[in-house]
Structures are given as structure tokens and as C-alpha cells.
């Protein structure tokens, strides 16, 4: 059986409304934290590839920003980078949160799924939150909008049925090259993941407009004595009035952000980390093309 020894590969995009659990699924599949997760909508801002490799296949998953109605240029970039994956991948996973009703946001996305040539799966996430009986009418409602090639209920949080999802994806893969080396798990360099970890802690610890007003940039990562890596990063905010919140009383907030981020960074780098954080104001950066570009939110082409 010649065919069985041939390597298979493919690109799989995970798209959906904000906050449904796309990044959680990606981390679950890869088995390591490479993309950040929060309970706030619009956490993910760039495409992030997660690479799953076995001796028979390589699946490159693309975690994408939640598709929403953009209110500034950053939002436009986010939505564009999610939608642009649709015609570039071998399989599209459209993820919904089964504990929420189908809304105009889902319909907007499904409208775009109708023209896609590649297989499209409906991934029904967060099944840990509902009774199984609730799924069937929901499947019918979604199937009435788009003819999905597969429908797979999962819980990205507890991992339920994620193996099954992988099996089904495998069944659709075509013969293809190994795009990335076996031990590579993301297309983004460590400095990107580091700044994302810091942003995740800001999302965790702040509320309202702050999480969305923040961008983080890794300024340097350098090995210093005793196997210690020194990381310097800057947290950018949009208005000087936000500075007090990020720094906190006698620096308490900045310290907490640093303590939490350091743990994740140490895990990622496999080394002790000395983390130094700075806070700077960049007026209205979410609508300033130059700043967007310098933070890595740059439109392709
Ligand atoms: N109960 C439950 N919660 C989940 C599940 N999957 C994700 N979550 C939670 O849902 C929230 C959003 O998860 P994310 O993975 O950040 O969602 P996302 O779709 O990537 O969000 P954006 O990046 O903003 O588009 C987090 O609080 C997760 O812990 C699940 O299967 N069950
Ligand atoms: Mg996300």
C-alpha cells in the first residue's frame, strides 16, 4: 500500500465570532500555550499558526482574530486578517459557542462561507455548558444556512472530542510536503509570544476600554549570567489617563502583570527570566497606520 506511506499535510483556519474559544482549541491541539486566551472579546489580533506534526502528517492550524464590526483601524486589520484566510486554506473550521444563540455576527460569517471551495466544518464548542439534547436543533439551524461538510461538537476547554476533530481533519488531508520542521510549533518567534503573554495579563487584570487600548512590544531578550534571560518590554496605552491604571497604586498593577507574565515566559523559554516592563503613551495608536505597523498590525499587500 504505497499511498499509506505518503506524507499528508494541510492548512486549517479556525474562524468565528470573538470569544467563542478559537485560541483555546488551538492551544489544546498543539498541547502548549502559543496563543493567548481571555474572557474578553477580541483577544487575538493577528493570525497565529500552530503546527501539529506526526510521522504521517502535518496540520498547520491558523488561529484568527474574532470577526466583528470594526470600530477602528486595528479592528479592520483584525477582521481582514481572519477573512483573508478563507481562500488560502485546505479546510475551514467555523467555530460557534453552543451556549449562545446564532446572531447576526454568525450570519455575516456564514454568508462568506457559502463561496468557499474548500471543505467547511461546523465546530460546536463549549459543549460542557449545555445538555446534549440542545445540540440537535442547533445543528439543524446552522445546516439550514450553510451545507457544512462535517459537524463536530467539542469542548476546547476540557478537550472533549478534540481527538475526533483531529481524526476527521486527517481524513481530509491530501498528500503534501512537511512545511515546517518537526519540532516547530508556531510560525511566530518567541519575542512575539512573549509580548502576547504580557498583553494577556493586561487583559486578565484590567477592564472596559483598557484591554483594547493596550499594545505590547518586546524591546530586548538577552541571556545574562546564571542562565537567566533578561526581557525588556513596553506596554503602550492610548491616553496618559490610562497610565495610572496600568501602573497601579505604588506600582502594584505593573508588578502583578509582570509576576504573572514572567511565569508563562519562563515556561516558554525554559529558563529563569528577569522581566522589566515600561509603560508609554501612544495617542490613538489604534487609528494610526504607522503605529499599527510598528506593533505588527500591518495589512498584507
Ligand atoms: N466552558 C468553556 N469555556 C471555554 C471553552 N473554550 C473556550 N472557553 C473560554 O472562552 C473564553 C474565550 O476563549 P478564547 O480562546 O480566548 O476565545 P477566542 O475565540 O480565541 O476569542 P478572540 O480571540 O477574542 O476571538 C475563555 O474564557 C475560555 O476559557 C469551552 O469549551 N468551554
Ligand atoms: Mg483568540
Question: What does it look like?
Answer:
- The longest helix has 18 residues.
- A hairpin with a 3-residue loop joins strand 8 and strand 9.
- This protein has 301 residues and is an alpha/beta fold.
- 34% of the residues lie in helices and 24% in strands.
- 35% of the residues are buried.
- The strands form two sheets. Strands 1, 2, 3, 4, 5, 6 and 7 form a seven-stranded mixed sheet that branches. A three-stranded mixed sheet has the order 8-9-10.
- Helix 6 runs antiparallel to helix 9.
- It has ten helices and ten strands.
- The model has no long low-confidence stretch (mean pLDDT 96).
- Magnesium ion (MG) binds next to helix 1.
Summarize the structure.
This protein is of the alpha/beta class.
Features:
301 residues; binds guanosine-5'-triphosphate; alpha/beta; seven-stranded mixed sheet; globular; 10 strands
Amino acid at each position: 500500500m504505497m499511498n499509506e506511506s505518503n506524507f499528508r499535510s494541510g492548512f486549517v483556519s479556525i474562524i468565528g465570532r470573538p470569544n467563542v474559544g478559537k485560541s483555546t482549541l488551538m492551544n489544546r491541539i498543539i498541547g502548549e500555550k502559543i496563543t493567548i486566551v481571555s474572557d474578553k472579546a477580541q483577544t487575538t489580533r493577528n493570525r497565529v499558526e500552530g503546527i501539529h506534526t506526526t510521522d504521517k502528517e502535518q496540520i498547520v492550524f491558523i488561529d484568527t482574530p474574532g470577526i466583528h464590526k470594526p470600530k477602528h483601524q486595528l479592528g479592520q486589520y483584525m477582521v481582514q486578517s481572519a477573512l483573508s484566510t478563507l481562500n488560502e486554506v485546505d479546510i475551514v473550521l467555523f467555530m460557534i459557542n453552543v451556549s449562545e444563540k446564532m446572531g447576526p455576527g454568525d450570519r455575516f460569517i456564514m454568508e462568506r462561507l457559502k463561496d468557499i471551495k474548500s471543505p467547511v466544518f461546523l465546530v460546536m464548542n463549549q459543549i460542557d455548558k449545555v445538555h446534549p439534547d440542545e445540540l440537535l436543533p442547533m445543528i439543524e439551524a446552522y445546516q439550514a444556512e450553510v451545507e457544512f461538510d462535517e459537524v463536530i461538537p467539542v469542548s476546547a476547554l476540557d478537550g472533549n472530542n478534540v481527538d475526533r476533530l483531529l481524526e476527521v481533519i486527517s481524513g481530509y488531508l491530501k498528500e503534501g510536503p512537511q512545511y515546517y520542521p518537526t519540532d516547530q510549533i508556531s510560525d511566530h518567534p518567541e519575542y512575539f509570544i512573549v509580548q502576547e503573554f504580557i498583553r494577556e495579563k493586561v487583559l486578565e487584570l484590567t477592564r472596559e476600554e483598557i484591554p483594547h487600548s493596550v499594545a505590547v512590544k518586546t524591546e530586548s531578550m538577552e541571556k545574562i549570567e546564571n542562565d537567566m534571560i533578561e526581557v525588556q518590554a513596553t506596554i503602550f496605552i492610548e491616553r496618559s489617563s490610562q497610565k495610572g491604571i496600568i501602573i497601579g497604586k505604588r506600582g502594584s498593577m505593573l508588578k502583578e502583570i509582570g509576576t504573572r507574565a514572567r511565569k508563562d515566559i519562563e515556561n516558554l523559554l525554559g529558563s529563569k527570566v528577569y522581566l522589566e516592563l515600561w509603560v508609554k503613551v501612544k495617542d490613538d495608536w489604534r487609528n494610526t497606520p504607522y503605529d499599527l505597523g510598528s506593533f505588527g498590525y500591518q495589512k498584507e499587500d
